[in-house]
Design brief:
Mean pLDDT: 81
CATH class of the largest domain: Mainly Beta
Structural class: mainly beta
Shape: extended
CATH superfamily of the largest domain: Photosystem II, cytochrome c-550 precursor
Distance between the termini: 70 Å
Order of helices and strands: HHHEEEEEEEEEEHHEEE
Helix content: 10-25%
Low-confidence stretches: 21-37
Number of helices: 5
CATH topology of the largest domain: Porin
Length: about 270
């Protein structure tokens, strides 16, 4: 019984040394030896989703043949095409990104440059975004460069002023397992939420709510090159993409979304 306090003191002393961080582990967390200094500078700042930039005056040229990697596209503005009225025709209106605010970029996209065109093959090639339109309506969509084939009609070089345009594929914002407020989905949940009497009618809106479809869409994107570093084979510029919004598994009609921003990439 007399030795219990002494034993507890020795055990606490040993645990203190065991839990203390070593110089190696401390360097891993804070020190530049393991490359975490950049993380420490940008964490909780909203800068984690920003694409790399090149210095002004980078006016080199790269042969648009081979492969590209590390393609990053950072949206800076989003516009929603709202329906027109008797006094005003349908046009794009500036919208506010509300979810997620600092994580809307597409990154580490790679693919082929054969034939002087960008052919996307994989990477983090889409991002789920929700915007708030001036009329108070929220529009979710999947910003995507999936299956992008962007070709240049003026030469085959990546240089300032070069433009690469082509189609993209937009995946469905929701998966087939997503349950709506009445537990309806494409692959799970109940088949119908209404009774047989309601199903006997010809209500198209009711049928679209009950029968879910995993519908994607098609978009178009234009990449405009602004700066090129021939030594490192890096390039930056701006982009404009137009694609459909979410259709809520077929129950809603999508609207056109225009996304503008900046991009960064390099040859593989």
């Amino acid at each position: 019984m007399r030795f219990r306090p002494l034993l507890a003191l020795v055990l606490a002393f040993c645990l203190t040394f065991a839990a203390a961080p070593t110089s190696v582990s401390a360097a891993f967390v804070k020190g530049p030896e393991r490359g975490n200094a950049r993380f420490g500078n940008i964490v909780n700042t909203g800068q984690a989703g920003e694409c790399t930039t090149l210095p002004d005056g980078s006016n080199g040229s790269i042969n648009a043949d081979g492969q590209f990697k590390g393609l990053c596209l950072q949206p800076t503005e989003v516009f929603v095409k709202l329906p027109g009225t008797k006094r005003k025709k349908s046009d794009f209106a500036a919208a506010k990104i509300i979810s997620p605010r600092f994580n809307t970029s597409i990154d580490e996209v790679y693919g082929d440059l054969s034939g002087g065109k960008f052919t996307e093959k994989g990477g983090i090639d889409f991002s789920l975004i929700t915007v708030l339109a001036p009329n108070g309506e929220e529009f979710p969509f999947a910003f995507s460069v999936k299956e992008m084939i962007a070709d240049s009609k003026k030469g085959k070089a990546i240089e300032p002023g070069a433009e690469f345009s082509g189609p993209t594929t937009t995946p469905s914002y929701r998966s087939a397992d997503f349950l709506d407020p009445k537990s309806r989905a494409k692959a799970t949940g109940v088949e119908y939420a209404q009774g047989l009497v309601a199903l006997g009618g010809d209500d198209e809106d009711l049928a679209r709510e009950n029968v879910k479809n995993d519908l994607g869409g098609k978009g178009v994107i234009t990449l405009t090159v602004d700066s090129v570093d021939s030594d490192t084979e890096e390039f930056t510029g701006t982009f404009v993409a137009v694609q459909p919004s979410d259709n809520d598994l077929g129950s809603k009609d999508p609207v056109d979304i225009k996304i503008t921003g900046k991009f960064y990439g390099r040859k593989a």
